[in-house]
Design brief:
By secondary structure, this protein is an alpha/beta fold. Helix content is 36%, strand content 15%. The strands form 2 sheets. Strands 1, 2, 3, 4, 5, 6, 7, 8, 9 and 12 form a 10-stranded parallel beta sheet that branches. β2, α4 and β3 form a beta-alpha-beta unit. 49% of the residues are buried.
């Protein structure tokens, strides 16, 4: 029942998703208890180390330079600033810091060298370090691994079919290629997506087909609910129902039995009871802190109160995989190659993205 499969079909996943809710919850919870401690939740803190100005046109994202949103952009943070934030996160119960930079892809040079130093610094604090920096080459992934990176996040976002209705500035295959580059190192993979972007149930199933087909499957999978931000192409989309999130979490748990399933964006719209049902259904990770890059998130003290009520405990770092060793910059055996990879730039246009770009 909990065997890892890489040959799921869309039809099989839709059958699971549409089961009577109590049956679905029972099946997911049974698998969850076979593979994980149901009373432990991995807690991550997401830190935007470089905000805004991204050249991509992702329809959900307020950090795209082409849209007119009110976010406050900032240049790359310093290593000391990041260390201070990491220590704060650790004291609040987080075992992982995920650093996000609004880049299309990693570019060799001083800024990437600075990110590598951030990775070294946080790993020495005995915390798991995750980065989400856009597309990476094999050599860049190896340099991140050498610095002590624990996980690399690169979400598929949605199904391959619906992807072209969300993003036109890069291809779905670029996502897969980046994950494959990370898999050539000892860095774990974090990859999931967003529901509530106007996709069909078939697209949610299609995303899970793509994730489950990866071999090995991702070690962690964030399930985000769209947070519609004014100025983005998706600003008028209504929030999904909590039942949709519960069903998606439960289905993900069944399809990805060994993966840590993370409740990510959209938790401010969920009641404690709704989140509790997600944990019962197999979610065993959250993002903590008052902000997820640019969108709101529950206060960490609220989360700790919820944990106390539910009898949940924060998971200790490196419970699933051993702590990476850090190689100092002066001892590195990997050089910057000054790469300029030609990541895909599809030539199609997305009408709602173009309309949001044209707004004054």
């Amino acid at each position: 029942m909990s065997k890892v499969r890489h040959d799921w079909t869309k039809e099989e996943i839709l059958e699971i998703y549409n089961r009577p809710l109590m049956e679905l919850l029972y099946d997911a919870a049974t698998i969850h208890r076979k593979q994980h401690n149901p009373n432990e939740i991995q807690v991550s803190t997401l830190l935007s180390i470089k905000t805004g100005g991204c050249s991509e046109d992702c329809g959900y994202c307020p950090q795209a330079a082409r849209y007119h949103t009110d976010i406050d952009g900032n240049d790359l943070m310093s290593v000391s600033q990041v260390k201070a934030q990491a220590l704060r996160a650790k004291s609040s119960g987080s075992s992982r810091v995920c650093m996000g930079a609004a880049w299309r892809n990693v570019k060799d040079g001083p800024e990437f060298d600075q990110v590598l130093e951030m990775v070294r610094t946080i790993n020495k604090l005995d915390m798991e370090v995750c980065c989400t920096l856009g597309m990476v080459t094999e050599n860049q992934a190896k340099r991140l691994s050498e610095a002590g990176l624990y996980a690399y996040n690169h979400n598929l976002d949605t199904s391959e079919d619906y992807y072209k209705d969300v993003i036109s500035t890069r291809a779905f295959e670029d996502r897969i290629d980046t994950i494959e580059n990370v898999r050539k190192t000892n860095v774990t993979v974090c990859s999931g997506g967003i529901i509530g972007m106007g996709e069909k149930l078939e697209d949610r199933a299609g995303m899970l087909v793509a994730l489950s087909s990866l071999n090995p499957q991702p070690e962690s999978t964030p399930i985000n609910a769209l947070v519609a931000v004014e100025g983005t192409p998706m600003e008028d989309i209504k929030p999904i129902e909590i039942w949709e999130m519960i069903r998606m979490v439960a289905t993900t748990r069944i399809v990805l039995p060994e993966t840590q399933v993370r409740l990510s964006a959209g938790r401010t719209q969920m009641s404690r009871e709704g989140q509790a049902m997600c944990f019962f259904a197999g979610a065993n990770s959250i993002f903590a802190g008052d902000k997820l890059l640019t969108t709101p998130n529950p206060d960490v003290n609220e989360d700790m109160e919820m944990f106390k009520t539910l009898g949940l405990n924060p998971q200790q770092p490196f419970k699933k995989s051993a702590q990476p060793k850090t190689v100092e910059a002066k001892d590195s055996k990997l050089d910057s190659l000054g790469e300029k990879p030609k990541w895909t730039r599809p030539d199609h246009k997305i009408e709602r993205n173009e309309a949001a770009k044209a707004k004054a």
